[in-house]
Design a protein that fits this description.
The protein is an alpha/beta fold and 198 residues long. The protein is built from eight helices and ten strands.
Length: 198
Amino acid sequence: MLTVIGCGVQGRSQLLALSRVLSVERVFAWDAEPTTASRYADEMVHALGCEVQAIADYREAVRASDVVVTCTPSQRPLLSAADVPSGCFVAAVGADSEAKQELAPDLLARSVVVVDVLEQCARIGDLHHALAAGALRREDVHAELAEVVSGRRPGRRADSEVTVFDSTGTALEDVAAAALVYERALDTGAGIELRLGG
């Protein structure tokens, strides 16, 4: 089971990406605007062919989920340690400035924390708030994403671990996504080639 908190553009792209690597059978969708969650559910049912349900209370759904994605502009914690079950993976992608926060410091303190870029997350991610609260130290962060992907650091080590990915976004991720889009466009003959200059 998967819960998406925040049903905007980022919520759509996150769920579509997850459906490429996970067997997604049931999705709960929550947004601060209930009509946005309903539209999202309708759209994603057709896109994925699985059950997608708009919900009014995300906490109950999170407690039953294996994967949770938060992609909101929230400036207060939406999830705490008590909300997230053992073995859950939480992708926190909304906090990308000092004022934004989706996860309470106690959740990060309880979790194996992976960040996209440590210095950036320590300044503007959910990690920033956990550090400021004294719930975590930089050296408590398990790894940067590149370390896990390259095999220099392990990913999940036990089924019971709560894993949090604190993502503030990096230029390298954007370049990798753009390169993939470009390669797919070349393969399918999509798009228009523009030649700049003389």
